[in-house]
Design a protein that fits this description.
- With 414 residues, the chain is an alpha+beta fold.
- The strands form five sheets. Strands 12-13-14-15-16-17 form a six-stranded mixed beta sheet.
- The longest helix has 16 residues.
């Protein structure tokens, strides 16, 4: 095992750990989808659907074109092998991993439901009603439950009704689980109707759970700092993270390393490499990344690995946007070398490249590689044509590499 890594070596390890060092399979079915999900350990969910829903894109990035309906069945069917929880924010995890988040469920239960000044104590009648309705009805959408109880009582937390808030807090506390979705709307059920009795009966003690989560994060990242490992599961207890790291070093699963350029306060940042991490000589990847892909979701790490400064501009007024409404990082080789703001115009059957920008050094073949990936993305989404805007320093290169593409003026609104 190496004790020092160059910045490029660390980058290749990280990209390989996320599954980008191997060619995409010719056919992507359930086995390939499960393999990618296992490697990532969690899949973040987001409601934005300008190009494709965020949880669809990491699988396309890794395994290529696949049937999204097959993924929906895998993730959201009754008694599916995956379940939603607040893992890395709202995310999908293996159903058997529910037990690893018992410590978080207990903390959130105490904060929101059982503390003397909590919302739950002030709305015990609502919680009891929701609990009894779910026991009687089984999996239900919020709209099916609200009825007379919620009518006329809207306001407060994001304008959600009391019933909706009760469901969310009961989900965070582990009493309720998500029993699939209708469209993108959740269906809620008592946890015992979704998660197996065996899993519910075996919650992991806190130290054991944190150690296992750090193990999985370190495997998914390949090489990481303590902050990287903490962010993967949004664990704020740094002492618990470092204790888990120490245990994994003692067992030989993690090896301390120094990475060129990784610094904290002007000094080398402590980092660790997983013993299964692979350092490829080269990576020949081409992928569009959602903003919530594990490769870039922790912005500090994206800056450290790729010299890539990233923010989502959804909430930025259109005229003030620098790169676009929902720009996607572009991985070519082992580096993020561009960003593109995409919109699926389904009525016109067109993938609209709203803007395109180059980052730092890029290979001479970058325009052709990105153009080919955009063509694959359009085909995956059932879009016949590609149009390229006139906004961004990469659009002329793309237009030249996509001879059949049309040109359009960019729309700063989305």
């Amino acid at each position: 095992m190496r004790s020092t890594l160059s910045a490029g070596e660390a980058r290749r390890i990280a990209v390989a750990a996320q599954g980008f060092a191997k060619p995409r399979p010719d056919v992507a079915g359930t086995r390939q989808l499960n393999g990618a999900l296992t490697r990532m350990a969690t899949l973040q969910i987001d409601s934005v659907n300008v190009f494709a829903r965020s949880h669809y894109l990491p699988l396309f990035s890794r395994v290529g074109a696949y049937d999204t309906a097959a993924l929906d069945r895998l993730l959201f069917a009754r008694r599916a092998p995956y379940v939603e929880y607040w893992a890395h924010v709202a995310s999908l995890i293996a159903a058997t991993d529910w037990r690893l988040f018992d410590f978080r469920m207990q903390e959130l239960r105490a904060k929101y439901l059982t503390a003397d000044d909590s919302w739950g104590q002030a709305h015990a009648d609502t919680l009891a009603w929701v609990r009894s309705e779910l026991a009687e009805r089984g999996p239900s959408r919020p709209a099916e439950l609200e009825g007379d109880l919620a009518r006329g009582r809207r306001g407060g937390w994001w304008e959600w009704s009391d019933v909706k808030r009760a469901l969310e807090l009961m989900w965070l506390s582990g009493e309720v689980a998500i029993a699939g979705r209708r469209g993108f709307e959740r269906r809620y059920a008592l946890a015992e109707h979704v998660v197996s009795a065996e899993v519910l009966a075996s919650p992991a003690p806190r130290a054991e759970a944190v150690r296992e989560l750090v193990r999985r994060a370190s495997r998914a990242y390949g090489v990481a700092t303590a902050s990287d490992l903490a962010d993967y599961w949004r664990i704020r207890d740094r002492r618990a993270i470092l204790a888990a790291v120490a245990d994994l070093v003692a067992s030989g699963e993690l090896v301390p390393v120094t990475v060129e350029g990784w610094q904290v306060g002007g000094r080398p940042a402590p980092a660790w490499m997983h013993r299964e991490a692979v350092l490829p000589r080269a990576v020949d990847a081409a992928a569009l990344l959602t903003p919530f892909d594990p490769l870039v979701w922790f912005r500090d790490r994206a800056q450290r690995l790729f010299d890539f400064e990233y923010r989502i501009e959804i909430y930025t007024p259109g005229p003030q946007r620098k790169y676009g409404y929902y720009s996607l990082p572009v991985l070519l080789g082992d580096d993020v070398v561009a960003r593109v703001d995409l919109k699926a115009d389904r009525a016109a059957g067109t993938l609209r490249v709203q803007s395109a920008w180059w980052e730092h050094d890029r290979p001479a073949s970058a325009p052709e590689s990105l153009a080919a990936e955009l063509r694959r993305a359009a085909d995956w989404q059932g879009l016949e044509t590609v149009s390229v805007s006139r906004w961004g320093d990469a659009v002329d290169d793309l237009a030249a590499a996509l001879p059949s593409a049309t040109r359009h003026e960019h729309d700063s609104a989305a």
